[in-house]
């Protein structure tokens, strides 16, 4: 019997989460810390009132996007996709991957806005995972499937598939037309149709967060690792993922430097290192915007990581609807 996932969850409940919450209280202050739940509830209620977006750029190809989402994030997914559809003018095909907590009602709330697209429920993803990546050959990926939900942004979306996939984090908002992102999507659709190599597309991080040493990552990949990549925007071709190689990378990283929350970001950076990725400009696609940047609606896209959550839930989503 594998007790590792249960022991990891117990450690999170008894130690990691209380420690993280205390640190957050100190950084945010009592007002923002105590009011955050109310701000989240207001944003969730507003998601039910969003009107469907009518596409205006009818001559352009539809924009297909993927989100890993669930009960805690569905309304953030709604706002991110809604602002993208609004500013791109494209018909949006919304593909959802269930993190294990998405309800039918929440899925329908998203489908009210975006009827086109597929939903991959966790049970079906697990069946496919077991079939295509049997545990005897992929023991590390199996262990991480159960205790590391971010890995599903690779396995549940790319496994058994082909072609370019644009995967977005839910905690982002668009404030202008994303020309660079749309240009990448159109170029890579054309490249895929002609059998050419599809280049990755990523954001710039506010600080390097791979969780593993660049020396070890480079040793595994054989080439230098690009700095400061962030997977809030993650465009990859499904064919670029060699699952046997990913199993080897995950096992080696785990054995030599332990588990880390940023494993998925490290793996994507390693995959991107072998190509010439499109890296969206940090001044337009902003990771960790300040409150001043948020109030000014600066840039094309804002990704609300870490301590930008208070103004994301308090103000940003309302500004994005103006």
Architecture overview:
The chain has 322 residues and is an alpha/beta fold. The chain has a single domain, classed as Spore Coat Polysaccharide Biosynthesis Protein SpsA, Chain A (Alpha-Beta Complex), CATH 3.90.550. It contains 13 helices and ten strands. The protein has helices at 4-28, 30-47, 74-88, 104-113, 122-132, 139-147, 152-158, 179-193, 214-221, 243-257, 263-273, 291-295, 309-320, and strands spanning 63-69, 92-98, 119-120, 164-168, 172-174, 201-204, 229-237, 278-279, 285-287, 301-303. Strands 4-7-6-8 form a four-stranded mixed β-sheet, sandwiched between helices. Strands 1-2-3 form a three-stranded parallel β-sheet. Strands 5-10-9 form a three-stranded mixed β-sheet. Strand 9, helix 12 (291-295) and strand 10 form a beta-alpha-beta unit. The longest helix has 25 residues, at 4-28. It starts with a helix and ends with a helix.
């Amino acid at each position: 019997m594998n007790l590792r996932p249960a022991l990891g969850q117990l450690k999170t409940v008894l130690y990691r989460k209380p420690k993280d919450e205390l640190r957050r209280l100190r950084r945010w202050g009592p007002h923002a810390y105590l009011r955050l739940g109310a701000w989240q509830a207001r944003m969730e209620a507003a998601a039910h009132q969003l009107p469907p977006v009518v596409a205006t750029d009818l001559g352009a190809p539809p924009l297909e996007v993927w989100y890993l989402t669930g009960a805690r994030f569905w309304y953030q997914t709604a706002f991110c996709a809604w602002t993208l559809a609004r500013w791109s003018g494209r018909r949006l095909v919304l593909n959802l991957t269930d993190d294990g907590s998405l309800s039918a009602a929440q899925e329908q709330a998203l489908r009210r806005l975006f009827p086109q697209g597929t939903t991959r429920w966790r049970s079906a993803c697990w069946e496919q995972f077991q079939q295509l990546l049997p545990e005897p050959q992929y023991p590390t990926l199996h262990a991480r499937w159960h205790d590391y939900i971010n890995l599903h942004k690779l396995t549940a979306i790319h496994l058994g598939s082909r072609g370019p996939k644009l995967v977005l984090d839910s905690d982002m908002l668009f404030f202008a037309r994303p020309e660079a992102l749309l240009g990448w999507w159109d170029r890579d659709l054309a490249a895929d149709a002609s059998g050419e190599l599809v280049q990755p597309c990523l954001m710039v991080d506010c600080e390097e967060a791979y969780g593993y040493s660049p020396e070890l990552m480079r040793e595994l990949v054989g080439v230098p690792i690009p700095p400061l990549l962030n997977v809030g925007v993650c465009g990859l071709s499904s064919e670029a993922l060699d699952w046997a190689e990913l199993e080897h990378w995950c096992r080696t990283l785990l054995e030599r430097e332990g588990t880390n929350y940023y494993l998925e970001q490290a793996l994507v950076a390693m995959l991107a290192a072998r190509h010439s990725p499109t890296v969206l400009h940090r001044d337009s696609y902003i990771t960790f915007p300040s409150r001043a940047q948020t109030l000014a609606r600066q840039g094309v896209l804002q990704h609300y990581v870490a301590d930008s959550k208070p103004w994301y839930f308090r103000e940003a989503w309302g500004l994005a609807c103006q």
